[in-house]
Structures are given as C-alpha cells and as structure tokens.
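Bench notes, afternoon.
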Amino acid sequence: MQVLEIKDIVRKDVPIYYRMYYSGRAVLELVNRSVEREIDFSIEIKPTGQKEILITIAEPVDYPLLPIIKELKKHIDNLDSHGNLPAL
C-alpha cells in the first residue's frame, strides 16, 4: 500500500488560526491497482506544538483502513513540513 499523491487540495476557510481544514483526492496504490478516494483532513497544532492530523475518507475502500490512514498521515505531514499545502 502506497500513497501516490493527494491532488486537488483545497483549504477551507476556518476562523480558528491553529486548525486548518482541507479536502482533496487521494491516489492510492493498493495491491497493484490504483484507486482515488475523496478525503477531508485537518491539521491542528496543539499548545505543546505537536501536530494532530485527522483524516476522513468519504468513500469505502476495499483495504484495511489503519495502514491507509497511517500512510496518509505521513504524506500529509510531509506536505505540510515542506510548505506544499495551499494557503488561504
């Protein structure tokens, strides 16, 4: 299982400065086949400086969700760390 990309990322306008909401399409490679699923995710910066990433997959996936969520969190954290997520 591998996250190939997250495309069409759009940031939603939220008045809370430490919480950012996004939506997009995750392109996943699952057992030699590629699938796309709509996702919503948020990144919240805790008072300790730690990031909390929450992900919602809108459509069912014929694969265990825990590895998918784990890989998506890594990919989203990498995008955020390198400044590749859209700003308002």
